């Protein structure tokens, strides 16, 4: 029983190592010095954070605008979403 768990764990670790190697080879990080790797990884993580943040902030408003634009009657969405100032009052 434990042999199967141990083997599956080792397979998972090998897969993660393979993904890491694939990431380094595709981004050419394998040729960089350690400080360059840290800098570029921070840059990539910051870019992903900005993309995720802007997706959650801006996409709902654009979808709301598209719904209003493409629907003939505003029965689907009667009122605009509440802003942060209107929630508390």
UniProtKB/TrEMBL annotation:
GO terms for cellular component: endoplasmic reticulum membrane. InterPro entries: Ser_palmitoyltrfase_ssu-like (IPR024512). It comes from the Eukaryota. Pathway: Lipid metabolism. It is found in: Endoplasmic reticulum membrane. The keyword Transmembrane applies. GO terms for biological process: sphingolipid metabolic process. It is a multi-pass membrane protein. Its main location: endoplasmic reticulum. Keywords: Endoplasmic reticulum, Lipid metabolism, Membrane, Sphingolipid metabolism, Transmembrane, Transmembrane helix. The chain crosses the membrane at residues 38-59. The keyword Plastid does not apply. Belongs to the SPTSS family. SPTSSB subfamily. Component of the serine palmitoyltransferase multisubunit enzyme (SPT) that catalyzes the initial and rate-limiting step in sphingolipid biosynthesis by condensing L-serine and activated acyl-CoA (most commonly palmitoyl-CoA) to form long-chain bases. The SPT complex is composed of SPTLC1, SPTLC2 or SPTLC3 and SPTSSA or SPTSSB. Within this complex, the heterodimer consisting of SPTLC1 and SPTLC2/SPTLC3 forms the catalytic core. Within the SPT complex, SPTSSB stimulates the catalytic activity and plays a role in substrate specificity. Component of the serine palmitoyltransferase (SPT) complex, which is composed of SPTLC1, SPTLC2 or SPTLC3 and SPTSSA or SPTSSB. The heterodimer consisting of SPTLC1 and SPTLC2/SPTLC3 forms the catalytic core of the enzyme, while SPTSSA or SPTSSB subunits determine substrate specificity. SPT also interacts with ORMDL proteins, especially ORMDL3, which negatively regulate SPT activity in the presence of ceramides. This is Serine palmitoyltransferase small subunit B. It comes from Lucilia cuprina (Green bottle fly). The lineage of its organism: Eukaryota, Metazoa, Ecdysozoa, Arthropoda, Hexapoda.
């Amino acid at each position: 029983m434990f042999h199967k768990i141990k083997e599956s764990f080792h397979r998972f670790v090998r897969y993660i190592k393979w993904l890491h190697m694939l990431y380094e080879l595709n981004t050419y990080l394998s040729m960089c010095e350690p400080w360059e790797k840290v800098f570029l990884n921070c840059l990539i993580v910051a870019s992903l954070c900005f993309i995720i943040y802007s997706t959650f902030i801006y996409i709902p408003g654009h979808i709301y605008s598209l719904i209003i634009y493409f629907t003939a009657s505003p029965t689907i969405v009667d009122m605009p979403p509440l802003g942060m100032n209107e929630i508390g009052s």
